[in-house]
Amino acid sequence: MTMTIWQGALTIVTVVLGTMCTRFLPFLVFPESKQPPRIIEYFGQVLPYAMTGLLVVYALRNTPILTGSHGLPELIACTVIVLLHVWKRNMLL
């Protein structure tokens, strides 16, 4: 199904406004001069690690363990990544 020019423009404007809201809303709700709630600070410390774990589980969910290479390439890749993170002490690599 194709969209008309009007529907396409409206979709783009909606996506842009949604993205702008998610980018600017934290700065409006939690200004720099005001201390954010403790739960927000806690989430800021915990969520990056939780999201990394979630992405690892999502990436490895369909790994074939009983056929072919038995997940050996995935195991090697995960081992190399863990060693790189331990060596460089940087989770953003």
How would you describe what is shown here?
The chain is flat, with a radius of gyration of 21 Å. The chain has two domains: 34 residues; 52 residues, no CATH class. The mean pLDDT is 91. The chain has 93 residues and is an all-alpha fold. It is built from three helices and no strands.
How much of the residues is beta strand, in percent?
under 5%
The radius of gyration is: 21 Å
Largest sheet: none
The total count of strands amounts to 0
Global mean pLDDT:
91
Cα distance, first to last residue? 40 Å
Query: Uncertain runs with pLDDT below 50, 5 residues or more?
Result: none
Large-scale geometry = flat
Proportion of helical residues = 55-70%
Secondary-structure element sequence? HHH
Structurally, how many domains make up the residues?
A: 2
Q: SS-based structural class? A: mainly alpha
| Secondary structure tally, helices | 3
What's the short story on this structure?
The protein has 93 residues and is an all-alpha fold. It has 3 helices and no strands.
